[in-house]
Amino acid sequence: MWEVMFWPIAACVLLPWLLVYLGLHVVARGIIFIDIAMAQMASLGICLAVLLHLDLESPATFAIALGFTFVGAAIFSLTGKRESKVPQEAVIGISYVVAAAAAVLMLSRAAEGDEEIKNMLVGNILLVTPGDVWKCLGLFALVGAFHFAFRRKFAFASFDREAAYQQGLRVRLWDFLFYASFGFVVTSFVRIAGVLLIFTYLIVPAVCGINLATSLRDRLLIGWVLSLVGGVVGLLLSFYFDMPSGAAIVCVFGVLLVAISGIGALRRA
Amino acid sequence: MKIRSIILIAALAAALLPSAQAKLNVVATLPDYAALAREIGGDKVDVTSLAKPTEDPHFVDARPSFVVKLRTADVLIEGGAELEVGWLPPLLQNARNEKIEAGKPGRVVASQGIRLMDVPATLSRAAGDVHASGNPHFMVDPIIAKAVAQHIAQAFATLDPANAAGFQANSAKFETEINAKLQEWGRELLPFKGQQLAAYHDSWVYFAHRFGFALETFLEPKPGIPPSPSHLADVIGKIKTDHIKAILVEPFQNRKIAEKVASSTGAHVVDAGQFPGPAESYTAHIDQLVAAVAAALK
After folding, report:
1. Helices marked H in A30-129 — which ranges?
2. CA-to-CA distance for A144 and A155, rounded, in angstroms?
3. Phi first, then psi: what are they for B95, rounded to 5°?
4. How far apart are CA B205 and CA B274, in angstroms?
5. I need a surface site. Which of A67, A109, B38, B170 has the fewest CB within 10 A?
6. pTM
7. pLDDT digits (tens, 9 = 90+) for A218-259
């Protein structure tokens, strides 16, 4: 078993910590589908690279994909006004469908066979390579360090927006930095693990943490423990029952969430 | 715990008695190669197919057992010609099995030595999901299948010389069977010779070529690209003017589009799979294909 499952398990142990942390921000800001919109922005960039006949693995392609997520970051930070009648989630949803539809149009013009593109966009955690894990971990360490250095500003902008505005924090700037760093993380993790998994790692541990604890530190700890348990148990189940690995992990997280909500309800009762 | 100790004992027994049961462990990427491997190997081989018959050979979902099977395989039979390029390389990279590395006797590339059709003169991504080395859907031509069977027999014979004669005999038997069947299939399809067929994807050129059909009309505008409304309008016009009676659709393709085209033209949708079922033999599968096409053209 180890020969097959070692690197998937390593990926599920070494990488989700940053997603759990970002997930707490995402849930607090109420922008649940931001990751899917960002991933779609990145794939739109890759479609453009295909139109320009660039090599899919080249740095130029990665740069274009990243550039598109920055465009997304700019859109989301500009539309996240202090008093807006339109919820941010609506803008995110619109960005997603337009980016997805534009990708379809571009591909029909480019007429590239979509095997490689699909593979590039939607990774499979089972087939992760050591190189993928180290590269992603390096990138996560950088983004993590950035967020750690400015954790107070980010926390202010996410968890206490009104006070942030009142104290004159440049909320738009911090929003942009948040979304841009988030785009980095999503673009690289999606290629390893796919859209289902990244969504799960962002949202489920955060929701469980919020259910059970009040301080950011406790929520993070609960989320981290949960992300380890869910990932490893899901991978083991996927091995012993021979199921697609990503989907198995997601369903384990679903079960964990139900169990933990039950515990939370009992404690409050 | 119990299962683990049983496995341990079995592994020990296997290690101590290497000659007691030396079946070749054969992994085929697709069910058609698996069917031929069973035909040639008989009870001297264990055959598994990674893809299911109803799965799109261009996109196959990897499961942990795929890696396990590839790790322990003695032989890997693949189509090559970029058919499995989207999913096999990462699996092989994770399996790290020397026996089935490219160029080793345990790696059978079925397209080797086959003259592929539709080799693009110039390579451009603008032509759609084109395979640079030619159309890889060649197994629906029984004469090519004979050559592939011979190729497989040679590989088995190299890896298991003790049973070489048996493998060659099975290959010869398969060849005779196909030769006899070709007469039968030819008779069944003779009345429709020269007629046009339409298909969703360009996976039937070899079949059309072998049995004397023309095949130029595809519901996809380019391989791997979903149909656009204007293209479908063209296809409908062409099917009407050329009186095309059959549209071949595979299980993983969008049957609704074919039905729409069929209902506005009077053509029949033929559910045609490239791949034999898990227990189906190659000839039984072609039997079924020929019968389905003949029924639609009547």
Report:
1. 34-51, 59-79, 88-110, 114-121
2. 14
3. -80, -30
4. 12
5. A109
6. 0.79
7. 999 999 999 999 999 999 999 999 888 888 999 999 999 999
Residues of A with CB under 8 A from a CB of B: 3-5, 7, 50, 53, 107-108, 110-116, 118-119, 124, 126-127, 129, 238-239, 242-245
Tell me if ipTM is over 0.95.
no
Could you give the 3-state DSSP secondary structure of residue B76?
A: strand
CB spacing of B129 vs A119 below 8 angstroms: no
Phi, psi torsion values for A53, nearest 5 degrees: 60, 35
- pLDDT tens, position by position, A116-171: 566 666 678 888 888 889 999 999 999 999 999 999 999 988 888 888 888 888 88
Whole-angstrom distance, CA of residue B169 vs CA of residue B39: 11
> Measured between alpha carbons, how far is B182 from B287 in angstroms, rounded to an integer?
10
Alpha carbons A203 and B289: distance in angstroms, whole number: 49
CB < 8 Å to A111, chain B:
125-128, 222, 225
Cβ(A12)–Cβ(A232) below 8 Å: yes
What Å distances lie between residue B79 and B85, B156, B256, CA to CA? 10, 17, 29
Half-sphere exposure of B166 (CA within 13 A, CB side): 14
Q: Do A115 and B85 touch (CB under 8 A)?
A: yes
Closest C-alpha among B288, B291, B292 to residue B280: B288
B126 with A3: Cβ contact below 8 A: no
- What is the identity of the amino acid at B245? K
Contact A112 B228 (CB under 8 A): no
Looking at residue A47, its amino acid is: C
Q: How confident is the model at residue A88 (pLDDT cuts 50, 70, 90)?
A: confident
> Distance between CA B197 and CA A82 in Å, rounded?
62
Distance (Å, whole) CA A83 – CA A86 = 9
Residue A103's alpha-carbon distances to A51, A228, B224, in angstroms, are 11, 34, 15
